[in-house]
Design a protein that fits this description.
- This protein is 11% helix and 35% strand.
- It contains 4 helices and 13 strands.
- Strands 2, 3, 5, 7, 8, 9, 11 and 13 form an 8-stranded antiparallel sheet that branches.
Length: 191
C-alpha cells in the first residue's frame, strides 16, 4: 500500500519516517509523495581523462570522479549527455516496516532531466541522504540550483517488517551516506 499525504504526515509524526531538515508541507508534500531538494554535493566523471570504467578495480571510480561542493543558491549546469551523482539536502530514515521509492519530478523530466538510472528503491531500514543519478537526456544544458525541489519520494507499507533492514546488513555499501559516494561495485561477491 502506497502512503497518502495523510499517511506520510502520520508516519513522520510516529517517526517511522524521519526527514531532516523537516520538510515544508506547503511546498514539498504531494498527494502521495514528499519532494526532496537538491543538496550541494556533486560527483562528476572525469571522462576526458579516462577512456573507460573498470568496475572490478578497487576504488577506481574514486579515481575517475571528483567531488564538487556548492553554496546554497549556487547553480550547477548539467550539459546534454552528462551523468553526475548528486545528493539530496534531506537525510531520510525509513522504518523496517516501510520502503521508499524515488522518482523524478515531471517538470524536470520535461526538460530532459532524469534523477535515477536504476536505483529508485530505498530498502526498509534505509538511513542517509539519497544519492541521485542525474542525467541530461535533452539537447540543451539545464541549470540546477542547490535547494530546488529535485525529486519525489513515495513510501510503501510492507506486509510485515523486514527481518534484516538495510541498516543491519553487513553487505550494505551505502548506509549513512551524506554525500554522493562513488560506486562500490568492486565489493560485490565475485565467485
Amino acid at each position: 500500500m502506497v502512503l497518502s499525504d495523510g499517511d506520510i504526515k502520520k508516519a513522520l509524526k510516529e517517526k517511522r519516517i524521519i526527514i531532516k531538515p523537516q520538510p515544508d508541507f506547503t511546498q514539498q508534500l504531494g498527494s502521495c509523495s514528499i519532494d526532496l531538494r537538491l543538496g550541494n554535493s556533486f560527483r562528476v566523471f572525469e571522462h576526458s581523462r579516462h577512456s573507460f570504467i573498470d568496475p572490478s578495480k578497487k576504488d577506481y571510480s574514486n579515481e575517475i570522479t571528483r567531488s564538487i561542493k556548492l553554496k546554497k543558491g549556487e547553480k550547477f549546469i548539467i550539459q546534454p549527455g552528462d551523468f553526475v551523482l548528486a545528493v539530496t539536502l534531506e537525510k531520510v530514515t525509513i522504518a523496517p516496516s516501510l520502503m521508499g521509492r524515488l522518482e523524478g519530478r515531471s517538470s524536470l523530466g520535461r526538460l530532459g532531466i532524469v534523477v535515477h538510472s536504476t536505483a529508485s528503491i530505498f530498502d526498509p531500514g534505509w538511513d542517509g541522504n539519497p544519492v541521485l543519478e542525474l542525467g541530461n537526456l535533452g539537447r540543451m544544458a539545464v541549470v540546477l540550483t542547490v535547494g530546488m525541489r529535485i525529486c519525489a519520494m513515495t513510501f510503501e507499507e510492507l506486509k510485515s517488517p523486514s527481518e534484516v533492514p538495510y541498516i543491519s546488513k553487513k553487505s550494505a555499501k551505502y548506509k549513512f551516506q551524506n554525500a554522493p559516494i562513488e560506486s562500490k561495485i568492486h565489493l560485490d561477491d565475485r565467485k
